[in-house]
């Protein structure tokens, strides 16, 4: 690639040449593949040599003359003389039309870590949140740091978008990474700390802008004084049924699903001033509609299959 440079400033020309070592610089327009100039005379000489020209113009008079020479508008950089022009700006103007490979930015997934102590419900929360995300159109993945996660007994293979024994995968917009009952460290964008209502199972509360606190298995009527972002009731038999059928509780209780979705939106927007509670009475009313007609039951099972869960026969 051969280029001709005539800026009238030797220091700026030397800097640009040093930034483009792959260019063979020529002393005259003849033989160049392109020319970058600041004066009309140099532009005329390049055009006469049939060399494409880019012109840096300091006045509107020079801009007008450049147009009269037939230089396209997009190849003229008009900079008023009183404005400070840097060599890097001139270089950017020069390189704007260069052929170059496209930049294919690989999307970086939002990493959402679930932390909890043993049997505090962290895996249960990760599973239900994953279901809510997928059911609402989010391309989510559920990653279990443990190869022996109880989740493997709740759902049946093939595990669509569920991976065990790792915190890394491919694809997806959101990774729900379950590190419950492990010491795995994750570089997370947000962390959900799941605490059991039983103080004996509680982990220390992290006072960090990256954390959101969920209090799980709260008995009906119990007031929780903790500064939790989400209060989840004790679902009792409904939770057991979910684990034995492969259908998460959030698939059957709209109030729970709605609360999890609101929690996700808060984390995505980095909002901490929230207090969400799942009404157990409403959840029970929703769950009490178990005596559905067969076609509605089949519809529920189909919904679970769509989001990646395969029911046991």
List the defining traits of the structure above.
alpha/beta, five-stranded parallel sheet, 10 helices, eight-stranded parallel sheet, 19% strand
Detail the poorly predicted runs.
Answer: 288-313
Strand elements, count: 13
Q: Which strand order does the major sheet show? A: 8-7-9-6-10-11-12-13
By DSSP (H or I, 4+ residues per run), the number of helices equals: 10
Structure notes:
The structure is a single chain. The protein is elongated, with a radius of gyration of 31 Å. The protein contains ten helices and 13 strands. Helices cover 32% and strands 19% of the residues. It is an alpha/beta fold. The N and C termini lie far apart (68 Å). α5 crosses α8 (254-268).
């Amino acid at each position: 690639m051969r280029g001709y440079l005539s800026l009238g400033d030797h220091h700026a020309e030397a800097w640009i040449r040093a930034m483009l070592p792959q260019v063979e610089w020529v002393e005259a327009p003849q033989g160049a593949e392109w020319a970058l100039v600041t004066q009309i005379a140099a532009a005329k000489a390049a055009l006469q040599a049939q060399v494409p020209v880019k012109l840096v113009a300091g006045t509107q008079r020079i801009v007008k003359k450049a147009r009269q020479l037939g230089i396209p508008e997009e190849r003229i950089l008009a900079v008023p003389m009183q404005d400070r022009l840097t060599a890097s700006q001139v270089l950017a103007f020069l390189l704007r039309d260069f052929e170059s490979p496209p930049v294919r930015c690989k999307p970086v997934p939002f990493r959402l870590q679930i932390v909890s102590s043993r049997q505090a419900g962290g895996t249960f929360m990760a599973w239900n949140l994953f279901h809510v995300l997928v059911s609402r159109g989010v391309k989510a993945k559920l990653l279990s740091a443990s190869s022996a996660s109880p989740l493997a007994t709740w759902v049946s293979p093939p595990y669509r978008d569920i991976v065990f024994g790792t915190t890394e995968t491919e694809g997806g917009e959101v990774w729900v990474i379950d590190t419950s009952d492990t010491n795995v460290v994750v570089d997370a964008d947000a962390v959900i700390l799941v605490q059991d209502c039983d103080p004996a199972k509680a982990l220390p509360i992290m006072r960090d802008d990256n954390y959101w606190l969920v209090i799980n298995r709260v008995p009906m009527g119990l007031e929780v004084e903790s500064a939790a972002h989400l209060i989840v009731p004790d679902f009792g038999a409904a939770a057991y049924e979910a684990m034995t059928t492969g259908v998460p509780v959030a698939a059957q209780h709209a109030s729970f699903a709605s609360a999890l979705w609101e929690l996700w939106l808060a984390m995505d927007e980095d909002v901490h001033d929230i207090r969400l509670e799942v009404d157990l009475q409403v959840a029970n009313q929703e769950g009490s509609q178990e005596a559905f007609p067969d076609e509605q039951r089949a519809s529920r099972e189909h919904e679970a299959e769509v989001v990646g869960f395969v029911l046991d026969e």
